[in-house]
Amino acid sequence: MTQTTEGAELCFPQLLNSSCRKPEPPRSEALLVYILLFVISLLTTVLNLLVIISISHFRHVNLHTHCAVLRFKMTFAKLCYHKLNWLLVDIIGNHINKDDVFCHRRELHTPTNLLLLSLAVSDFLVGLLVMPVEILMTLSCWVLADLICPVYYLLPFIILCSSVVNMVLISCDRYVAICYPLHYPARVTPKVSTVCVILCWVYSVIYSVLILFDNLKHPGRYNSCHGECVVHISGTVDLVVNFLVPVSIIILANGRVFVVAVSQARAMKTNVKVRVKKSELKAAKTLGVLIVVFLMCYSPFYSVALTGHDIFVGSSVEVFMVFLMYFNSCLNPIIYALFYPWFKKTTRLIVTLQILKANSCGAKLL
């Protein structure tokens, strides 16, 4: 927002010389844009909620555990579980649904699923909390205290930072699964994946507080007038820490995965025995598309920092690039729908309320 001129409608009329102008009501063309943004926000929320339910509920949604050793372990574990559960039923008399209990204990804690679940939670929060507030902020004045402005921006910074780190973790997961398939079950365990997800969110909180520390210490410093919410971040620091370093890891990991995938695909055509399953290669390709879309959505925002300028989030110039980053959260579940048949099936079961039936988590999806 710019400073006022005499006669303009002000956010704070009592502050004649320092108040921002009220945003003009959107015209018909702009109104359509805002409606579209709200639809994208709703779509982002719903689609990612479907992903969260799909991964959490259905036991056959398993994107990576195709190793024979791990299948043996899971089969043996299920056998032991059933024996123990029947013993408990005989002793206590509770009629526990064995399949439902097992599938909820089992598939939610698979390594790749946990990483995708963490990413889906980030994207879900973008659609539910971040995008609606950002849209409303472009339509009205900031009427809350100056301190609330940087405190609010902590949320999108934490969520977007966690999305970047989740992409790094997913790339590393695919790297180990494709390049070291025999060692994957031992190196990437559910416990390791859980710790990585926790560290991802802890790191995101710490980084966001540090990058916004000056704004928290001196709220309102970068506002040009009363009635706007603008925060300043060091473009160079954010570019290196939150983009260049993660993207370098992502490109290196996926580059290696691509080389191995191509060699394995050629070996399959020549009937040479390979150690990587076709499903693993397909998962690698799908996640590769996920990474490319991620880079396309995030690169414009960080291109500002590449020019040597700092970033003022909340200014009109940055609005488009910020929403492009948010749009990535809507595209991720669409990619799942296009490339993962299981997501289409789980969506149909969820929408038709089939998940409310007994043993629904054991539905055959693959």
UniProtKB/TrEMBL annotation:
InterPro entries: GPCR_Rhodpsn, GPCR_Rhodpsn_7TM, TAAR. The chain crosses the membrane at residues 31-53, 114-145, 151-172, 192-213, 243-262, 283-301, 321-343. It holds the Pfam family 7tm_1. It is a multi-pass membrane protein. Keywords: Cell membrane, G-protein coupled receptor, Membrane, Receptor, Transducer, Transmembrane, Transmembrane helix. It is found in: Cell membrane. One of its GO terms (cellular component) is plasma membrane. Its main location: membrane. Residues 93-336 form the G-protein coupled receptors family 1 profile domain. The keyword Glycoprotein does not apply. Gene3D superfamilies: Rhodopsin 7-helix transmembrane proteins. PANTHER family: HISTAMINE RECEPTOR-RELATED G-PROTEIN COUPLED RECEPTOR (PTHR24249), TRACE AMINE ASSOCIATED RECEPTOR 19P-RELATED (PTHR24249:SF381). Belongs to the G-protein coupled receptor 1 family. This is Putative trace amine-associated receptor 4-like. It comes from Scophthalmus maximus (Turbot).
